Amino acid sequence: MADDLFEGLPPPSSNTHFQPPPPPPVLSVSTINNTTESSTVPSVPKPILKSSLKRPNPTQSDNTQAAAPKKSLKFKTSTDASEAQVIDAMKKISSHIKNPAKFSKAAKLAIQLIEAGSVKSGVSDYFFAILEAAMLSPVPCTEPSVRADYHSLFSAAQDAKEHFNKKQKNQLATWIINAVVANDLYTDDSFVFSKAATQIKEAISNLPAATEEDDTEEATSLKDITVMVNEGGQTLATNEDNKGVEEADPFGLDALIPESTKKSAKNDGAINIRKEDEEETKRILKLQRKALITCLEIAARRYKTPWCQTVIDILVKHASDNVARFTAHQRDAVEKLWASIREQQTRRKQGKSVNGKLDVNAFEWLQQKYSTEKISIRHSVGGSGDRRATQWLG
């Protein structure tokens, strides 16, 4: 008998028919809500992917995020600079601002120091050296090429004047007349021009009356300086050098001087300080008078501009009324300016300009027009004596 081929196999099942796999269960809302994260059916539909052309460039966004801290770091570095760095920067600016070719850039850097709040009491002397070097430039502050930069620099310097001492404030006020007010007289804005003229009038009114001593000092300064240097300049320089070399107390006699003598020495020191203050006041007044004469000359040169004429008339007339506040040489200059203005007024009223029109300003034209008008409060309303408006007026 042959071996059994089905030996060792499990017995056959009772249901030998093929059964198809069961259909997937129908999910209800409650079933979806109760499913866990391991469920095969996602609870939220996947987002639709957009075109790659519409996506932001990842490298560009990364660069933008990386550049943001750099900007803030640069800002902190510029504002949190140490005092030594600010002093070093001010020294460099003062050395370059004397050069007319570098003046514009140096002036803008100085303005940035003011805007950043770097000008403080500890470094105010270094910043004042920048302004002093700017005024020592060979190019005048009213030169057209540097006029705007001078105006911006000294206008901004007024925001830092609280950190200057009294002597520096007085000097800055004089420089502002030269660099700001004088440059405003070149403007094409009638409001700015009138404002500058008002400031000049106020400055003239604040000047004290000139004394004979001022006239004498002015006459001495106008002499030929080269002759004085050739005659005694070398001797004076030698004496000054010897004074600097001498010791204060070479023989040790200060201990033997009585107290009364020391007190008198202190009084002499106080007198010397008072004299220095008086000399400084005279120096500032001299510079202010000179600056105001310069402003008057600039204004007089603009007399050909029609809308400037009335303001200039009032300004030069005010200077002529207060001519005693100037020195002898300056009084002559003011009187010549006023005589020139009056001559041009006469020519403007009687003569004719190049275009053939009467050379008068708007105020004088209206004054001349209405001086000949016939106006009656009883019989007429029109400007020329007609009665065209009587009917509708009732």
Could you give the topology of this structure?
Layout: H1 29-34, H2 58-79, H3 83-96, H4 103-115, H5 124-135, H6 147-157, H7 166-184, H8 190-206, H9 212-221, H10 225-245, H11 259-301, H12 309-321, H13 328-350, H14 362-371, H15 390-393
Percent range for β-strand residues: under 5%
Q: What structural class should be given to the helix and strand makeup?
A: mainly alpha
Estimated radius of gyration: 44 Å
Q: What level of helicity do the residues show?
A: 55-70%
Main sheet: strands, sense, barrel: none
Shape by Cα distribution: elongated
Distance between the termini: 154 Å
User: How would you spell out the order of helices and strands?
Assistant: HHHHHHHHHHHHHHH
Region (Disordered): 1-77
Biased composition (Pro residues): 9-26
Biased composition (Polar residues): 31-42, 57-66
Describe the protein's architecture and organization.
The chain is mostly helical and 394 residues long. Among the domains are: 80-184, no CATH class; 276-360; 362-394, no CATH class. It has helices at residues 29-34, 58-79, 83-96, 103-115, 124-135, 147-157, 166-184, 190-206, 212-221, 225-245, 259-301, 309-321, 328-350, 362-371, 390-393. The longest helix is centred in the C-terminal third of the chain and has 43 residues, at 259-301. It is elongated. Residues 9-26 have a biased composition (Pro residues).
